Amino acid sequence: METIVWIVHVVAAMSVIGLVLIQHGKGADMGAAFGSGASGSLFGVSGSANLLSRATAVAVTVFFITSMSLAYLASHGTKHGSVIKATQTSQQAPVANKTTDAPKPVDSSKAKDVPQ
Q1: Rounded CA separation 66/87 (Å)
Q2: Nearest CA among 112, 11, 19 for reference residue 57
Q3: Distances (CA, A) of 88 to 73, 75, 97
């Protein structure tokens, strides 16, 4: 499931980049608006959306949905969300019951009064 979301996410990101790059920008005709007698507003005519702008809107919507899905899967998945947490839990060695050669503590209630 997560792999499919990653693939759709990457395809949507690449399509958004491609669609934005091939569109004609609104500010491209701004030089013509100053003195050439261009009709419309300063940044061009604002007409109805064409096929490229609608395809961009769909790709951006898919990109947003997959981004939110991947964030949810990362926070609620069984895998670790952090590389540091994953390496810490996988590299922990089991602690063996090892006795130490340290002396046992003296019980202060049974100790005799020693003059100082």
Answers
A1: 27
A2: 19
A3: 21, 18, 21
